[in-house]
């Protein structure tokens, strides 16, 4: 698959089939992740892959903790967004709502509950950042993008998730993850339920000229 096609066509999946993913496919995806560049080649990452009952147990604990604490979704992590980002967030919500309705979802906290249950994906990949590396966490983003693109190349679907990180201690305690490792992101991975209307949604991107400045260029070529 052409890399530009993968970048343009990859999208976030929010409904997965109850279909297992082979360990072989996961290993290939993780080999792409470990091929990512990192500052001074420190490679400050670990990847923990969870499926089956262990994954289901985490989901159960996360949902119970959310119900107990009442934590809700906040794109600004509890802080007020400025006008630009409020507009983008509101636009996302308004454009995904029709797909949620078509899917017959009537849970007002669906995004929260969906995120904490990994949208039903059979496998999750925990991206863990080693704080002892004293490295920049941008390295984790490079590895994450490799996961998303290589999975798409294999016909697998993904959803990168930040909301479960609110309950990082719960997840780390359950899996006995060492203290030095900080949870950077979780990727839900599996096969998309292509019949579910929610998976017809693809979020938009702002135009390039809104986010780009060219400095020092004399000609357009």
Q: Please count the helical segments.
A: 7
In CATH, the topology is named NADH Oxidase
Let me know the largest β-sheet.
Answer: 4 strands, antiparallel
CATH architecture: 3-Layer(aba) Sandwich
In percent, how much strand structure appears in the residues?
5-15%
Give the spatial strand order of the biggest sheet. 1-2-4-3
* Helix content percent band: 25-40%
Terminal-residue CA separation: 27 Å
Structural class, from helix and strand content? alpha+beta
Order of helices and strands: HHEHHHEHEHE
Give the total of domains. 1
Low-confidence stretches: none
What's the β-strand tally? 4
Q: What shape does the CA trace take?
A: globular
Highest-level CATH class = Alpha Beta
Task: Look at the structure and give the mean pLDDT.
Answer: 95
Radius of gyration (CA) equals: 18 Å
- What is the CATH superfamily? NADH Oxidase
Organism: Methanoliparum thermophilum
InterPro entries: Nitroreductase, Nitroreductase-like
Protein name: Nitroreductase domain-containing protein
Cofactor: FMN
């Amino acid at each position: 698959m052409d890399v530009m096609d993968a970048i343009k066509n990859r999208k976030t999946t929010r409904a997965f089939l109850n279909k297992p993913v082979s360990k072989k496919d996961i290993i290939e995806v993780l080999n792409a992740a470990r091929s990512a560049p990192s500052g001074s080649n420190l490679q400050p990452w670990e990847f923990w892959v969870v499926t089956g009952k262990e994954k289901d147990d985490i989901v159960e604990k996360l949902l119970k903790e959310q119900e107990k604490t009442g934590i809700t979704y906040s794109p600004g992590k509890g802080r007020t967004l400025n006008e630009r980002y409020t507009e983008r967030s509101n636009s996302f919500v308004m454009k995904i709502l029709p797909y949620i309705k078509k899917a017959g979802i009537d849970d007002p906290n669906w995004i929260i509950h969906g995120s904490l249950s990994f949208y039903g994906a059979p496998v999750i990949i925990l991206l863990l950042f080693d704080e002892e590396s004293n490295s920049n966490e941008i390295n984790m983003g490079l590895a994450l993008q490799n996961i998303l693109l290589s999975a798409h190349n294999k016909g697998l679907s993904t959803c990168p998730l930040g909301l479960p990180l609110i309950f990082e201690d719960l997840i780390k305690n359950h899996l006995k993850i060492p203290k030095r490792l900080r949870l950077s992101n979780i990727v839900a991975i599996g096969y998309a339920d292509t019949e579910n209307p929610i998976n017809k949604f693809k979020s938009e991107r702002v135009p390039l000229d809104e986010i780009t400045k060219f400095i020092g260029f004399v000609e357009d070529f």
